[in-house]
Specification:
Length: 658
């Protein structure tokens, strides 16, 4: 013992100039682990304070507090805790800022005067976990001789909140093996972990666990089960749990609304939102954010405007997140002018980087790249630092407009502004260069990516090869994509189209056979159009609409009218093994053409016809809408999977570059 004390005194009196920081940490860890006397502990405490470790390393602060408690000096333990707790609440200079939630368990132990091993170890687990030191917390947890439900749940919860769901669930299983069944908080954390994994079968097991243990009646547990099923894609089961809840709060409604929206069921979300307004739970800003997302998904200007008015009339608190989301909603609903107006009316001092990003992106997807670049410059002049999303938006704007030089400069400026290029930025660059025909430069850039290129990057190159008919590079991109995402039908279809354009019919058949053997199906095209307060949808060759006979007749008459002024159908947009007359017939019934024909029939002459399509608009429809906009003097707005196309007077806002 005396030898340890002497060695500690000797080492602590040395300057340690030759030791690196990790070595110093290890040195102090070793001393604290071996420390068994107050005299030695105070020497270590003094040295740690002198070197400033206690201000920046919660690990050492926790160890000192616990050791003082274990060695019976509760006064020093409490004094140390109070000093640092008070100091960090005001300065927040600590790595993890101390506040009312940081050390409650330790404080409780110190106030009660108990310094038994069980209480101290439990306090240490709680402190480490809440400081984000999960490894240290687990180390102490593993050494505990006595562990209760609270300790188990603390560890499970911290793993779940750190987005480490597998470790959380492994710990939950071990907890059950040791005879502990958990409580409501355990059930909530486990449900959240399963939701992160998206495992539907495991979700059913957790649901059964909550029912069998009597936890399901707790509203918080019910909410977590609803959210878990929704994240696993089982919206029907989520709704079943929601409907059976005897008590619901705002979180219950928001969980179900979010489930519908995240799983591509915005109309169901809107229907449930109407029910919520008739319930005892008032919608809150979180509800509004979810519903803004639903309106954005639908691209419904009418519903988006109605929701915005509801937020204003209900005097709901509108913070930056909600304001930016509403701006983005208007962008995605085709009303860029209202989004610009909202931005300009926003107090300049309250605009954050997201506010600028929304409008820069909005200008880009609407084909107004120069305004996007001007706003980007203005943003920097006003002292707002761009982030990774800003550069994605600017690069996308350059891509949509074919501004190659501006895009190259923007990409080069990223490192100057301390923003590290990510995979999404490389994908934008490959897309921009590829669309412009610079395929070799795009391929060279892919080779320079420091990590393995993603499917997004190779997908951009494959699309460019489809546009420019480059079979060789297309095969290279496709082979990578078939390995990265072998179940993505779109990549096979693109490669088949590349072969078809080169008249390599044997290769076309091979790709098609591959699609069939894998049981893959091309996503069905779908287009929607608003008419008054109603939203009408159209599938390819659709006969489910009550207006389908009228729409078909209108489409056929449009084809005749267009041909009279020079329209020639682009038959390359149809499969090669179809007769020419059948190809033309199939082109007439593309979903966006059906929707536009409906709009011409039903929507007043002075109003724009706005269509939203789930896939990229085909070349023939793009060509046809320029003729229709001129023939009927109508403005036609089409939002496809990538961007907006504004057709007016025979011209498209994309400049035929998309």
């Amino acid at each position: 013992m005396e030898g340890l004390k002497n060695r500690a005194l000797h080492h602590l009196s040395q300057p340690h100039k030759g030791l690196l920081l990790p070595s110093l940490h290890h040195f102090y860890d070793h001393l604290l682990q071996c420390c068994t006397s107050l005299t030695t502990l105070k020497l270590i405490h003094s040295s740690l304070s002198t070197r400033g470790f206690l201000l920046h390393t919660p690990h050492f602060l926790a160890r000192l507090v616990i050791l003082y408690s274990k060695l019976g000096d509760l006064h020093s333990a409490r004094a140390l805790f109070d000093h640092h707790h008070h100091h960090h609440r005001h300065t927040q200079r600590m790595g993890v800022a101390a506040n009312n939630f940081t050390f409650p368990f330790v404080l409780k132990v110190l106030r009660s005067g108990f310094a038994s091993g069980v209480f101290v170890e439990a306090a240490l687990v709680d402190m480490y976990a809440k400081c984000g030191e999960i490894g240290d917390a687990h180390e102490v947890f593993d050494q505990m001789l006595v562990r209760d439900v609270v300790c188990w749940t603390t560890m499970i919860t911290r793993y779940e909140q750190s987005e480490r769901p597998l470790e959380a669930l492994m710990l939950f299983r071990k907890m059950q093996e040791e005879g502990f069944f958990g409580d409501e908080i355990t059930a909530i954390s486990v449900a959240s972990a399963v939701g992160q994994l998206g495992d539907g079968r495991m979700a059913e097991s957790v649901h059964s666990y909550a029912v069998l243990n009597g936890f399901i009646g707790d509203v918080s547990v019910g909410n977590s089960i609803v959210g878990m099923y929704a994240k696993c894609g089982n919206v029907e089961r989520a709704r079943l749990v929601f409907d059976r809840m005897k008590e619901r709060d705002g979180i219950s409604w928001n969980a179900m609304l979010s489930g519908y929206t995240q799983n591509g069921q915005p109309t169901d979300a809107l229907s449930l939102f109407n029910q919520m307004q008739s319930s005892e739970c008032d919608p809150n800003p979180v509800t509004a954010l979810i519903m803004v997302s639903a309106c954005s998904y639908l691209g419904s200007m009418h519903l988006g405007s109605k929701l915005h008015n509801y937020v204003i009339n209900s005097k709901m608190e509108m913070d930056n997140n909600l304001r930016n989301a509403i701006m983005d909603m208007y962008v995605k609903c085709g009303d860029l002018d209202t989004a610009v107006e909202m931005f300009n009316n926003f107090d300049p001092g309250k605009r954050d980087v997201s506010s600028w990003n929304v409008l820069i992106s909005g200008y880009g997807v609407h084909g107004r790249a120069k305004e996007a670049l001007e706003l980007f410059s203005r943003m920097q002049m006003e002292g707002v630092e761009p982030n990774d999303i800003t550069f994605t938006s600017v690069l996308s704007a350059c891509t949509h407009a074919g501004l190659i030089d501006e895009g190259r400069k923007c990409f080069a400026d990223m490192t100057k502004l301390s923003v590290r290029p990510e995979m999404k930025h490389y994908a934008c660059m490959v897309d921009m260069l590829g669309r412009a025909g610079c395929l070799n430069e795009a391929f060279s850039l892919i080779k320079e990516i420091p990590s393995q290129p993603s499917d997004e990057v190779w997908g951009a190159l494959l699309l460019a090869c489809r546009i420019h008919g480059n079979t060789e590079l297309g095969e290279i991109a496709a082979n990578h994509l078939f390995q990265l995402d072998p179940e993505h039908t779109g990549y096979y279809v693109l490669m088949s189209n590349i072969y078809a354009a080169s008249k390599k019919w044997k290769e076309v058949e091979k790709v098609r056979h591959n699609i069939k053997s894998r049981g893959l199906k091309k996503p069905a095209a779908f287009s929607v159009i608003e008419f008054g307060t109603e939203v009408h949808g159209f599938h390819t060759a659709d006969n489910s609409s009550p207006y389908y006979r009228e729409v078909y007749r209108k489409v056929e008459s449009l084809a005749i009218e267009m041909k009279m002024v020079g329209y020639v159908p682009d038959l390359s947009c149809v499969l090669h093994d179809v007769e020419p007359e059948d190809k033309e017939h199939l082109l007439n019934y593309h979903t966006e053409k059906l929707a536009v024909a409906f709009g011409i029939m039903k929507i007043d002459q002075g109003m724009a016809i706005q269509v939203t399509k789930n896939l990229r608009i085909c070349r023939d429809c793009h060509w046809a809408f320029k003729f229709i906009s001129s023939l009927y003097s109508r403005k036609i707005i089409v939002r496809d999977a990538n961007r907006f196309h504004h057709f007016q007077g025979g011209i498209c806002s994309c400049g035929d570059y998309w």
